[in-house]
């Protein structure tokens, strides 16, 4: 497993990935992770207060997400699964745009073309094929782009993911698959999910593969940057397996104490991705107290803005879903929409709905 | 005179010539030209990047077509046989059909999925199914089928031109039917993709049908004519959306309707049409809507399919029953 920053915050030399980390890069990656975690906590609070229907925390996976998304170019298209909130924030997607889906005001809240970041996919692994097809289009266009596709250890059992890995090799698709192995698919651990690690299986399909400490943002960043460079230069598609841990439950509907021990979670809390970079920044003197205090203020502001933006999200109308079902609305559907609207309008004249 | 298979081939060629973003993909469709040769010669003409032989994975075909469409391409996928579409069911129903709505209208998926459908050619199991109702039931998909070479030529081009995903059924038992096709007629002059067509005018009863069943319906109408009964035959062409005005216009005039399709009748197009006719012209009808369809059993072995598939005699039974009501 590739590791450049140990859990105790010390740097490790790896001949394959020369340590060319700069203080600025470390501060930037740390800031991304720190803010993403604060956003995540605020979203959890909003769910517990009934303002979100559901929330899936990225807690513990910030390094895997931030390190990978920051290593590709801004014009590289990204296909997330559904927990990539830290990656989404790095792309400039706003808290409100992320929360819209979980508040139930939209199935997705952002414009995928604007952020080069596709909508979340809740059917596990389906997006791996979309990403592969998109990457085939990139190749046909002769564009210097790389596609980054996220999925998890659970989704690696899906047919679509396995079809995508094979397809990408056959079709010479410029794509980096990024598997966040957080070791738990709701209550199903990796031992029940697979007999062979994802990166080993991917090698069998013909992809170049990396196995990286997913809680080490420097290693994830270095590995993803190298992978993207190689793919961009015409190399085979790549799969990166980032070994990480889902500190929270699968979602806010889940009680992980039922299926895993606190001791296991504590072990991974000690390998926290944010803490180890904080330790490095302090030890090397790359950030002073004023820097961290400023970051705290920024995080508080983000949390306040997140809350306010969430609460001000407008409720959706059924008309919108009608209008977005087809490019050209069929006459029967138009009639149904108009009848529905007329029926709804009947309630507005002082009547209580 | 060209066959339906050739007409589809020429329609695809015209679509690919018109728009360089149109790509064709599927199992064995490139070098071989497809198991029914519908894409024959296209790879030689347009190259392997635009006519792609894919791995043997139907979910992969539809899933990667979605990705290509997101990139700006207009993929036309072939599912080799009707019964092989199920591995792609999630990609069609949850992804292709819903992406526009899920993205609040920001993403369009102009993908055409061609499916050689229905039976009647003595094939082995899983090669003769009529599974259109699954897709008609799914909001966000257009489902069409052609019955003649002329329709095949124009409808495949219209399907490729539209911005909505289209499930395009080709009745494989009609692939070798020959007819004149005017390839020089402007596409804009053709009937709209969603429009039904009256293929035989009549006064006493309307047969509503599509795809493989248009021909036996016409045979039945001719026999009825010889017996002094005037039967109208409407080729629905588009199953989703249905051309309800055309259906109502015919049935209000004849006051009797028989729906004919190969698919099992339970919750099929016949059930939907029967409900629509009841809702819209109940008091104008002289008889209940009758359905002639496949029986509610798995598609039988080939040597029994002749007794499974609706034919002119079974259609006439229903016509007689309706007229005697």
TrEMBL record, chain A:
Domain of life: Bacteria
Annotated Dehydrogenase E1 component domain residues: 32-309
First-tier enzyme category under EC: oxidoreductase
Required cofactor names: thiamine diphosphate
EC numbers: 1.2.4.4
Organism: Dactylosporangium aurantiacum subsp. hamdenensis
Name of the featured protein: 2-oxoisovalerate dehydrogenase subunit alpha
GO MF annotation list: branched-chain 2-oxo acid dehydrogenase activity; magnesium ion binding
Catalysed reactions, semicolon-separated: N(6)-[(R)-lipoyl]-L-lysyl-[protein] + 3-methyl-2-oxobutanoate + H(+) = N(6)-[(R)-S(8)-2-methylpropanoyldihydrolipoyl]-L-lysyl-[protein] + CO2
UniProt-listed Pfam families: E1_dh (PF00676)
Record's function text: The branched-chain alpha-keto dehydrogenase complex catalyzes the overall conversion of alpha-keto acids to acyl-CoA and CO(2). It contains multiple copies of three enzymatic components: branched-chain alpha-keto acid decarboxylase (E1), lipoamide acyltransferase (E2) and lipoamide dehydrogenase (E3).
UniProtKB/TrEMBL annotation, chain B:
UniProt entry keywords in alphabetical sequence: Oxidoreductase, Thiamine pyrophosphate
InterPro entries listed in its UniProt record: THDP-binding, Transketo_C/PFOR_II, Transketolase-like_Pyr-bd, Transketolase_C
Protein's name according to its UniProt entry: Putative transketolase central region
GO MF annotations in UniProt: magnesium ion binding; oxidoreductase activity
Positions of the Transketolase-like pyrimidine-binding domain: 2-177
Cofactor(s) annotated in UniProt: thiamine diphosphate
Source species: Dactylosporangium aurantiacum subsp. hamdenensis
Pfam families: Transket_pyr, Transketolase_C
Highest taxon of the lineage: Bacteria
């Amino acid at each position: 497993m590739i590791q450049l920053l140990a859990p105790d915050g010390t740097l490790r030399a790896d001949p394959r990935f020369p340590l060319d980390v700069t203080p600025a890069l470390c501060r930037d990656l740390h800031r991304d992770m720190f803010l993403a975690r604060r956003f995540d906590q605020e979203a959890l609070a909003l769910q517990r207060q009934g303002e979100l229907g559901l929330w899936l925390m990225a807690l513990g996976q910030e390094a895997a997400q931030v390190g990978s998304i920051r290593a590709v170019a801004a014009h590289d298209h990204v296909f997330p699964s559904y927990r990539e909130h830290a990656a989404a924030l790095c792309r400039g997607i706003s808290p409100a745009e992320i929360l819209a889906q979980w508040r139930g005001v939209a199935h997705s809240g952002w414009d995928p073309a604007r952020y080069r970041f596709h909508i979340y996919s809740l059917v596990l692994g389906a997006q791996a094929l979309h990403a592969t097809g998109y990457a085939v289009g990139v190749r046909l266009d002769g564009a210097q782009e790389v596609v980054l596709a996220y999925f998890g250890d659970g989704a690696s059992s899906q047919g679509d993911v396995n079809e995508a890995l094979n397809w990408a090799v056959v079709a010479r698709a410029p794509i980096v698959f990024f598997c966040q192995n957080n070791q738990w698919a709701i209550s199903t651990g990796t031992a029940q999910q697979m007999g062979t690690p994802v990166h080993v299986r991917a090698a069998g399909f013909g992809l170049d593969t990396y196995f990286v400490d997913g809680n080490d943002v420097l290693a994830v960043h270095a590995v993803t940057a190298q992978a993207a460079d190689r793919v961009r230069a015409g190399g085979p598609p790549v799969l990166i397996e980032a070994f990480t841990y889902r500190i929270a439950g699968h979602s806010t509907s889940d009680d992980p104490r039922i299926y895993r021990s606190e001791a296991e979670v504590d072990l991974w809390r000690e390998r926290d991705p944010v803490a180890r970079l904080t330790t490095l920044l302090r030890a090397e003197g790359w950030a002073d107290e004023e820097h961290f205090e400023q970051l705290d203020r920024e995080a508080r502001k983000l949390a306040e803005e997140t809350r306010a933006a969430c609460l001000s999200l407008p409720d959706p109308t059924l008309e919108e879903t009608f209008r977005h079902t087809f490019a050209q609305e069929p006459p029967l559907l138009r009639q149904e929409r108009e009848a529905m609207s007329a029926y709804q309008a009947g309630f507005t004249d002082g009547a209580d709905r | 005179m060209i066959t339906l298979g050739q007409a589809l081939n020429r329609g695809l060629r015209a679509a690919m010539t018109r728009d360089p973003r149109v790509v064709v993909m599927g199992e064995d469709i490139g070098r071989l030209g497809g198991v029914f040769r519908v894409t024959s010669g296209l790879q030689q003409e347009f190259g392997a990047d635009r006519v792609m032989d894919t791995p043997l994975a139907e979910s992969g075909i539809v899933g990667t077509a979605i990705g290509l469409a997101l990139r700006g391409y207009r993929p036309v996928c072939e599912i080799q046989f009707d019964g092989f579409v199920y591995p792609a069911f999630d990609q069609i129903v949850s992804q292709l059909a819903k992406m526009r709505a899920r993205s609040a209208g920001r993403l369009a998926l102009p993908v055409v999925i061609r499916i050689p459908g229905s039976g009647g050619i003595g094939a082995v199991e899983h090669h003769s199914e009529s599974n259109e109702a699954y897709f008609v039931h799914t909001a966000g998909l257009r489902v069409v089928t052609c019955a003649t070479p002329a329709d095949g030529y124009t409808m495949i081009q219209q399907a490729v031109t539209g911005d909505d995903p289209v499930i395009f059924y080709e009745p494989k038992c009609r692939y070798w039917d020959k007819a004149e096709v005017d390839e020089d007629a402007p596409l804009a002059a053709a009937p709209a993709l969603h429009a039904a067509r009256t293929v035989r005018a009549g006064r006493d009863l309307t047969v509503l049908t599509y795809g493989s069943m248009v021909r036996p319906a016409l045979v039945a109408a001719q026999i009825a004519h010889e017996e002094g009964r005037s039967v109208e035959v409407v080729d629905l062409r588009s199953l989703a959306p249905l051309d309800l005005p055309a259906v109502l216009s015919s049935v209000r005039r004849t006051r009797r309707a028989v729906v004919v399709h190969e698919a099992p009748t339970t919750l099929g197009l016949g059930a939907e049409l029967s409900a629509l006719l009841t809702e819209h012209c109940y008091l104008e009808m002289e008889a209940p809507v009758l359905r002639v369809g496949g029986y509610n059993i798995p598609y039988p072995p080939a040597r029994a399919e002749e007794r499974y598939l609706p034919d002119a005699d079974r259609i006439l039974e229903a016509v007689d029953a309706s007229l005697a009501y």
